[in-house]
Write a structure and sequence with these properties.
The chain is mainly α. Helix content is 97%, strand content 0%. The chain has helices at residues 2-89, 91-113. Helix 1 (2-89) crosses helix 2. The protein starts with a helix and ends with a helix.
């Protein structure tokens, strides 16, 4: 009879343990879902922050690139105007220089063919 009572006690203890484990698992699962939701929110916020920073860097780079392009275009225009003025001031000298450069290039290119 004592054995039956012990078995019943063990059965009840196991049933209680099983129920406690189910409750604990549900609670832990809910807590993990909550942690996952919080983590997801933090990751999204950080992602938005990084995206915004990247957009700012892109905008700054685009503005700087445009400034550099405009500066280079302006310098190229100035150099072209200066060259045109120089050629117009000294047409004979410019023609002789162009002829000399053409001869040197011709000799260099002809030398490679041999």
């Amino acid at each position: 009879m004592a054995t039956t009572k012990a078995r019943e006690d063990i059965k009840n203890d196991l049933k209680t343990l099983k129920d406690d484990l189910k409750v604990g698992a549900r609670e832990e699962s809910a807590r993990l879902r909550e942690i996952a939701a919080e983590t997801e929110a933090r990751v999204r916020a950080k992602s938005d922050e990084v995206r915004e920073r990247a957009r700012d860097y892109y905008d700054q780079a685009r503005v700087r690139g445009r400034e550099y392009y405009d500066d280079a275009a302006e310098r190229l225009d100035e150099a072209q105007r200066a060259l045109v003025e120089r050629v117009q001031e000294r047409p004979m000298q410019s023609t002789a220089i162009a002829l000399g450069v053409g001869v040197v290039l011709g000799l260099l290119l002809a030398g490679r063919r041999r």
